Recover the amino acids of this structure.
């Protein structure tokens, strides 16, 4: 009987521990954003990703032609790819497709203050944004996280879908998806995926998700504040290209500050893991086994 009781107590403790464990995991850490827009499903993800690949390739070729595509060995290129490699294991939480994306990072030698991540994980930074704003690693991670978040949440796809609806009005949805509508939509919304402007709510969402990606990778999420302060200061002269698609302002900084508490714990944990050289906690189990492919510098 005693043994039975003992076993029962042990089982109860185990159960309590298990429940405890569940409870400890349950209130999921991180920023609070809603579901991605269902509207985006009107346009196939592949359509946008293919368009992005074409435009990204064209951009790289154009840059190469002007001798502006930074070599793989460029210190800033190496720096960008290191940061990307740290952020990307945390990306899949936001979009399961992302694990199959062929992530790419390029550095364009241009004075423009600009950076973007196109659908399908095609990232580009201009030297202007890094050098003119003297971005710290934390700030680079915030810019990159923000841009990656646009791609993960498929904001371009959402824009294309909305434009499809607005432009084509009453046409049957089937023809939008399989007929010419998609082309029209991309022509209108994503025609130039490089200069696409997103809605305020998309911007806010990307700020928050970007902040979480940076925090999970051990980059200080509070650096969003210094980033936007630098960006605003830079806009006093000729407004940076990035600002034309990413309006700065005090609201933005305030929202970042108000939401920092949601990612501070993640940042502290990741920072400690980084300092001790232990593997970084990933966004969900198994993510570390599915590390994204980033084109390695040529030896
Ligand atoms: Zn943005």
């Amino acid at each position: 009987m005693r043994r039975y009781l003992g076993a029962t107590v042990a089982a109860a403790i185990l159960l309590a521990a298990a429940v405890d464990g569940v409870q400890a995991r349950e209130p999921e850490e991180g920023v609070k954003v809603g579901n991605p827009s269902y509207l985006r499903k009107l346009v196939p993800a592949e359509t946008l990703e293919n368009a992005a690949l074409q435009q990204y390739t064209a951009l790289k070729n154009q840059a190469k032609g002007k001798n502006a595509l930074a070599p793989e060995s460029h210190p800033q290129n190496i720096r960008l790819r290191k940061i990307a490699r740290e952020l990307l294991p945390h990306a899949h939480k936001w979009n399961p497709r992302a694990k199959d994306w062929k992530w790419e990072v390029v550095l364009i030698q241009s004075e423009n203050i600009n950076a973007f991540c196109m659908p399908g994980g095609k990232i580009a930074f201009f030297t202007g944004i890094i050098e003119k704003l003297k971005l710290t690693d934390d700030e680079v991670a915030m810019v990159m996280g923000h841009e990656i978040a646009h791609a993960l949440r498929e904001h371009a796809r959402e824009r294309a879908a909305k434009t499809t609806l607005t432009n084509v009005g009453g046409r049957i949805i089937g023809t939008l998806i399989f007929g010419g509508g998609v082309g029209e939509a991309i022509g209108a919304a994503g025609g130039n995926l490089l200069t696409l402007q997103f809605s305020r709510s998309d911007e806010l969402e990307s700020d928050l998700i970007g902040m979480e990606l940076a925090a999970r990778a051990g980059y200080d999420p509070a650096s969003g504040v210094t980033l936007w302060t630098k960006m605003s200061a830079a806009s006093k002269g000729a407004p940076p290209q990035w600002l034309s698609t990413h309006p700065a302002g005090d609201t933005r900084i305030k929202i970042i500050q108000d939401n920092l508490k949601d990612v501070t714990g993640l940042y502290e944990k990741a920072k400690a893991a980084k300092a001790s050289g232990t593997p970084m906690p990933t966004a969900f189990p198994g993510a570390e086994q599915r590390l994204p492919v980033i084109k390695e510098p040529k030896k």
Summary: The pocket of zinc ion is lined by residues 146, 150, 198, 203, 206, 246 (CB under 6 Å).
